[in-house]
Structures are given as C-alpha cells and as structure tokens.
Amino acid sequence: MAESQGLNASAMILESLRGLVVTSLNHFAEDAWDLNFNFHAADLNTYCSWRLVGNGLVLLGGSDHGQKFGLPEPVDVMAEALRLLNGKAVEEASIDETTADLRIDFAGDMRVDVFNDSGAHEGWTFADKRGLKIVAQGGGQKAIWKPIAPKP
Length: 152
Fold this sequence. Notes:
This protein starts with 8 loop residues before the first helix and ends in a 7-residue tail after the last strand. The protein contains 2 helices and 11 strands, in the order H-E-E-E-E-E-H-E-E-E-E-E-E. The protein has a single domain (9-145), classed as ibrinogen binding protein from staphylococcus aureus fold (Roll), CATH 2.30.310. It is mostly beta strands. A hairpin with a 3-residue loop joins strand 7 (102-106) and strand 8. The protein has helices at 9-17, 77-85, and strands at residues 22-29, 32-37, 42-46, 50-54, 57-61, 90-95, 102-106, 110-114, 124-128, 133-136, 142-145.
C-alpha cells in the first residue's frame, strides 16, 4: 500500500483502463453502480451521480434508470449504457484535484462523468486486477492503495 501523497491517481487509472472497453454495468443498490471493464480487469463502483455524455449531449444518467419519460417502456440504464459504449475503448481518464470527480473518455466522443457529491461519504471506488485501489473520499480527498512491486 502507499499513501496518496505524491501519486498521480489520474495517471494510474488511465494506465489501468487505456484500451479497455465496458463489458457490464450492474445496479447493485440505490445510487450504487458497478462499471466493469474487460471482464473484471478493472471495476468502477459509484455511490453518487454519474452521466454518459456523447456528441455534446447528456445521453443518460444513473438517475434515469426505471424512468418512463413518456417512452413506451422505462429506461433500462444498464442496457442503454452498454449499447452506447459498445466496443468503445478508453482513451483518457482524469480526476479533478479539488473534488475527486472522475472523467473517463472513450473513443467516439463518449465519456462517463462521476460526481463525488458528498462532503463525508465515499463517492466512488476503482480497483484493477493488479491490486490498485483508489477511493474518492468525502470532501474531494483520495485514498490510494498501490501494490508494491517485488524486489528482483
């Protein structure tokens, strides 16, 4: 493990995600979502608001799940997000240094924005199969656990 001081969380997330695609999205509790990349090579769990932006428009948000909006059927955010992100690889990732909001950019002018919206509660967590874990804490702080490489 390592403390977050001196570590670049944005670069670490990008190193984990670059070139990966979303393979599943699960809604596991109210306001809680799991965005899975390349069959659990990395996972992003959100406990706050998030949205999918494409071509200059907000296309979908976690709060849209189950809403009718005058449509024939309620919105299935999981199915719609997977449709919109289908085959689109991650190109960039960044974390706002003040708020710990997360932005993940995909090919084809698509992005996911995650809003760390509490002064006290964790907003999101990220983990990859190498053992990296990043937690967006309340108030915009970040905690980072990075595996220590074995000495040769």
